[in-house]
Amino acid sequence: MARSSRLPPLNALRAFEAAARLESFARAADELAVTPGAISQQIRSLEEHVGTPLFVREGRGLSLTEAGRAAANVASDAFETLERAVSLMRQPAQRRALTVSVAPSFAGKWLAPRLHRFQETQPGVEVWIAATSERVDLSAGAADLGIRYGPGGDMTLNEETLLPEEVLPVCSPDLLRDGPRLATPRDLDGHTLLHDASPESEVDGADWPSWLKARNIRGVDTAGGVRFNQSALVIDAAVAGRGVALAKRALAQNDLASGRLVALFADGTSPVRSAYHIVTARNRPLSPDAEAFIAWLRGEARVHEHSVDEL
């Protein structure tokens, strides 16, 4: 809706609001640091502009006309709104901060590429990703919530499964095309194996010896190769063509979908015992921002699992 270009001067409206509220030209003049004559002149100018009297002057007394009474409260509300607007200009509202504790590999490979979608729906929330392998003390308020990888069952926290996990052999398309043959798992013996040596991999059985044993494959040397202490580094090395990785699906999904990695062998996928869990403190209520973030995580997990099904 277009604003009228026939608004009266702001000074005249300010003089009217003060005089109506204080029921006195003299007191309005004191408040606005002008003379009573200046207030009287502004009111007269405003009455000429709107075409009707706003005050009745009775000797030394002053009262509002019907039109003046109708406009007085609206004018007061309008100036309060303007004062709030100026206050916001001088000191912009603080963005709300939400701290999420998460392992570096999951933060870099899964969470960070999706985070812009949360920020688009919640622009007033500033998300702090605390990427650390340490288990921070959520009960002490070190973070609002965490995403942890493991078998679950921590009774000291509220825990909700976000994503299951599985592992599969992957390599770069260049290595598959130009490198030694990779038609069957036995062909792995002719390649550099990239090992995920993060602490949870051995617990999960998500390592090359376990993967080969489950398929009754012998003769592949698993002692050599390159070892990494973070799952994301294993995937990055595979993308760079440095060898064949046994990768966590959730972390490799974007690289598989984009074609930077290809999955090997029809029966290559193996489930693992661990999953990604949303964890929160039992002794600290969730803020509305934390609840919104968790709801967003659930939705992203559903999209992720649907994309896995399509591959």
Automatic annotation (TrEMBL):
GO terms for biological process: DNA-templated transcription. InterPro entries: LysR-type_TF_proteobact-type, LysR_HTH_N, LysR_subst-bd, WH-like_DNA-bd_sf, WH_DNA-bd_sf. It comes from the Bacteria. The keyword Transcription applies. GO terms for molecular function: DNA-binding transcription factor activity; sequence-specific DNA binding. Keywords: DNA-binding, Transcription, Transcription regulation. Gene3D superfamilies: Periplasmic binding protein-like II, Winged helix-like DNA-binding domain superfamily/Winged helix DNA-binding domain. It holds the Pfam family HTH_1. Belongs to the LysR transcriptional regulatory family. This is LysR family transcriptional regulator.
